[in-house]
């Protein structure tokens, strides 16, 4: 059976809190033997790659472009899709679970794709809050207060 893969999604222009959370999530996932999927760029992507690789983890970057100069450090392998934001679907459909850290429009698209896919656990750490047209909250992810809780939620939901 292939290794469990968890996508960690977040903005390329993130807060320091988001970066700190992403590093810790990456470290914890690597220590649990989970392969990390990310966009392979700056911000949350670079922070999760840094945390996972420092802990000896496998990190796959799935890039929206073909520019080899724009990848972050800490990646074990890179897939260059040259598909723009459409690569978000590849990240989500390749994951056994998704952790969303922070928020941007690209991150929102990944959250939406994960929910549209169904059957894949989605954990949010400081991410988007979604409402329906009437202003009622929509549960789009399991809310986690910290990196340890986010990774434990993933481990609990995927067995």
Describe what you observe in this structure.
- The protein is of the alpha/beta class.
- It contains five helices and nine strands; from the N terminus they run βαβαββαβαββββα.
- The strands form two sheets. It has a seven-stranded parallel sheet with strand order 4-3-2-1-5-6-9, with helices on both faces. A two-stranded antiparallel ribbon has the order 7-8.
- The radius of gyration is 14 Å and the shape is globular.
- The two termini are 14 Å apart.
- The model has no long low-confidence stretch (mean pLDDT 93).
Q: What string, H for helix and E for strand, traces the elements in order?
A: EHEHEEHEHEEEEH
CATH topology descriptor: Rossmann fold
Q: Beta fraction of the residues?
A: 15-25%
Tell me the number of helical segments per DSSP (H or I, 4 or more residues long).
Answer: 5
**What strand line-up does the widest sheet have?**
4-3-2-1-5-6-9
- Broad shape: globular
Structural class: alpha/beta
Number of domains: 1
Q: Spans of 5+ residues with little confidence (pLDDT < 50)? A: none
Question: Topology, pairings included?
Answer:
Elements (H helix, E strand, L loop, with lengths): L4 E5 L6 H16 L3 E4 L5 H11 L4 E5 L13 E4 L6 H7 L3 E5 L3 H13 L4 E4 L4 E2 L5 E2 L3 E2 L3 H12 L1
Parallel strand pairs: 1-2, 1-5, 2-3, 3-4, 5-6, 6-9
Antiparallel strand pairs: 7-8
Helix pairs in contact: 1-2, 1-5, 3-4
Could you list some keywords that capture this structure?
159 residues; alpha/beta; Rossmann fold; 7-stranded parallel beta sheet; two-stranded antiparallel ribbon; 5 helices; 9 strands; 37% helix; 21% strand; Dethiobiotin synthetase
């Amino acid at each position: 059976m292939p290794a469990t893969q968890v996508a960690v999604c977040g903005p390329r222009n993130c807060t320091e809190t988001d970066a700190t959370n992403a590093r810790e999530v990456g470290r914890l996932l690597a220590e649990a033997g989970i392969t990390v999927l990310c966009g392979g760029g700056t911000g949350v992507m670079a922070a999760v790659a840094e945390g996972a690789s420092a802990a000896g983890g496998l990190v796959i970057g799935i890039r929206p472009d073909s520019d080899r100069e724009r990848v972050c450090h800490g990646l074990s392998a890179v897939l260059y899709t040259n598909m723009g934001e459409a690569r978000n679907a590849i990240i989500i459909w390749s994951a056994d679970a998704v952790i969303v850290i922070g928020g941007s429009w690209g991150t929102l698209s990944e959250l939406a794709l994960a929910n549209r896919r169904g059957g894949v656990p989605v954990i949010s750490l400081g991410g988007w809050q979604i409402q329906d047209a009437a202003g009622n909250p929509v549960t789009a992810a399991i809310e986690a207060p910290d990196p340890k809780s986010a990774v434990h939620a993933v481990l609990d939901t995927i067995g």
